[in-house]
Amino acid sequence: MSLLEIKKLDVRHGLLQAVRGVDLTVEKGETVALVGANGAGKTTLLRAIAGAHLPAGGSVHFDGVDITHIPAHSRVGLGVALVPEGRRLFSQMTVEENLILARSAGRKGPWTIDRVFEAFPNLVPRRKAKAGNLSGGEQQATAIGRALMTNPEILLLDEVSLGLSPLAVDRVYASLDTLIHGGTTIILVEQDLRRAMRVADRIVCMLEGKIVLEGKRGEITREQVSEAYFGLGSAKGRVHA
Ligand SMILES: Nc1ncnc2c1ncn2[C@@H]1O[C@H](COP(=O)(O)OP(=O)(O)OP(=O)(O)O)[C@@H](O)[C@H]1O
């Protein structure tokens, strides 16, 4: 049984159908990168998995449980954690307070404050700093740490590189590396195709709300993904009509 099984998922924003008949399965321990042009539906799909958007059709099963209509806060308790685009920290609270607050929403497990600070050592001297005064990279680390405090089975990362300097992106990915190789299941939305293809076990490309190409790292090329990204048709892989 796959950890996550999405079948024929439709998600609407009013009249606009942002996700169209998406089928996607994710195995335990896998890292999946969701790529695609602006407006392809990546964020909407990620947020639908987290329960932030309820679907108009289809189903989402997590660890064998039908969570299609379960609200976001209950999904956190089941082990689904979203690191949203823009981080959304409590800016007037300290790093530590942001982390402590997340603990109450989640499950018991190996992630504690001390372990988060071990995974993100650059946060240690910033422990008592207000989140609003952190650099972008520190804020991103805090946002990931906050999600980890809920002891997730699956971590959903939406554009962790956005707005960060190349050095800060490298730091964030170096910390993510520990999680990826430690067996955490991850779906990440990443605009940087080269980075996505370096870190992920599998690449899933969306176009206009549909998955148009899907393949394991090493089994698809950057050119194929680029073609699918821009809807240039000749890409091979799991192509959805
Ligand atoms: N809250 C919303 N209300 C209305 N339309 C929305 C909303 N969120 C997204 N959309 C629309 O849904 C479509 C998919 O957007 P989504 O943000 O999921 O795409 P994306 O692939 O994540 O793009 P980006 O890389 O720009 O974040 C777009 O046409 C977008 O304008």
From TrEMBL:
Keyword set includes Transport: yes
Pfam families linked: ABC_tran
Annotated GO MF terms: ATP binding
Ranges for domain ABC transporter: 4-233
PROSITE patterns: ABC_TRANSPORTER_2
Domain of life (superkingdom): Bacteria
Family of the protein in this entry: Belongs to the ABC transporter superfamily.
PANTHER family: HIGH-AFFINITY BRANCHED-CHAIN AMINO ACID TRANSPORT ATP-BINDING PROTEIN (PTHR43820:SF5), HIGH-AFFINITY BRANCHED-CHAIN AMINO ACID TRANSPORT ATP-BINDING PROTEIN LIVF (PTHR43820)
Protein name: Branched-chain amino acid transport system ATP-binding protein
Organism annotation: Kaistia dalseonensis
